[in-house]
Amino acid sequence: MFSLYLECKQEEKDRLIAELWDRGSSGITESDVPAGTCALRAFFDDGESGALIREFAHWGARSEPELPRDWIAEARAKLVPVHVGARFFLVPEWCDDPTPPGRFRIEVNPGMAFGTGAHESTQLCIEALEHELKSGMTVLDVGTGSGILSTAARFLGAGQVIACDVDPVAIELAKQPLSFVGSVDAIRAHTIDLIVANISPEAIISLAPDLTRVLRPPGLAIVSGFETPEVADVQAALESAGGKVRSSRTKGSWAALVASI
Q1: What's the average model confidence in pLDDT over 105-110?
Q2: Which phi and psi angles does 169 have, rounded to 5°?
Q3: Which segments within 173-253 are labelled E, that is strand?
Q4: How many helices (H) and strands (E) does the chain have?
Q5: Which of 2, 14, 22, 222 stands 20 to 30 A from 212 (CA)?
Q6: What local confidence, expressed as pLDDT, does residue 181 receive?
Q7: What is the CA 238 to chain-centroid distance, rounded?
Q8: Structural domain boundaries of the chain?
Q9: Share of the chain above pLDDT 70, in %
């Protein structure tokens, strides 16, 4: 077994991870580096490291020998129950920890889709939902991943929750009693009261016109999945599409914006 260490820009991370999975990686970890960059270590059970080093030379790839690892056990050890916001208790599905009084329990299936509840951007979105969601609202969860934010919206009294994702893994994981569509452009204009989108900054910027199009005035959009240096670009895209950023939240290096139309 060996590992391949690489460094890339944040905007390259998702594509690079996908390429590493395609090359047969058995596990990928991310380590802390300066803002705007990302350090990845991809583990391989067998194969020839030299070819991979040459293929990924652009990212400074270098290899090291590794002992065999139990990825399932390691992943489970890192996921523990967590209190999020004022009203939620997020629990890995294999844990039987009792739900604290006054909190909603969400059992998390940490598959390949994004969304375990441990990430700061997910927590920021849940906290914003607690503050902004009113009973009976129609909510659109863009890039639903494992379905945590859709579930949180239902607990908070949403009248209807529409989950949106184009990833087949996410569609399989987000097995919730809610409506499901593939992409935002399938939603009619002015039919949504509140959008929550915990996705990449590039995706938010690209989708900004559709996000504002589907909102029914005075609709709200909660967006996250980006770090503080990227806030200005995301805000500019939302405002260019007709939105007005009215508040922001941060947790660690991550940020969330709430925009209205």
Answers
A1: 81
A2: -65, -45
A3: 179-181, 192-198, 215-227, 244-251
A4: 8, 14
A5: 14
A6: 64
A7: 19
A8: 2-69, 124-260
A9: 86
Share of the chain above pLDDT 90, in %: 57
Q: Class assignment of domain 2-69?
A: alpha beta
Amino acid found at 95 = C
Sheet holding 179-181, edge to edge: 179-181, 160-164, 138-142, 192-198, 215-227, 254-260, 244-251
Do residues 196 and 215 touch, judged by C-beta distance below 8 A?
A: no
CATH for the 124-260 domain, from 3.40.1190.20, 3.40.50.1220, 3.40.50.150, 1.10.150.80: 3.40.50.150
According to DSSP, the residues that pair with 38 across neighbouring strands are 8
The CA distance from 127 to 121, in Å, is: 10
Confidence (pLDDT) at 112: 41
* DSSP per position, 201-213: HHHHHHHHHHHHH
Cβ within 8 Å of residue 86, ≥6 positions away: 130
Query: DSSP assignment, residue 114?
Result: S
Question: Are the CB atoms for 84 and 126 separated by under 8 Å?
Answer: yes
> What predicted TM-score, i.e. pTM, was given to this entire model?
0.74
Report how far residue 30's alpha carbon sits from residue 37's, in angstroms, rounded to the nearest whole number: 11
Cα(3)–Cα(71) distance, integer angstroms? 14
Within 12-165, where are the H helices? 13-22, 49-55, 71-78, 120-132, 148-155
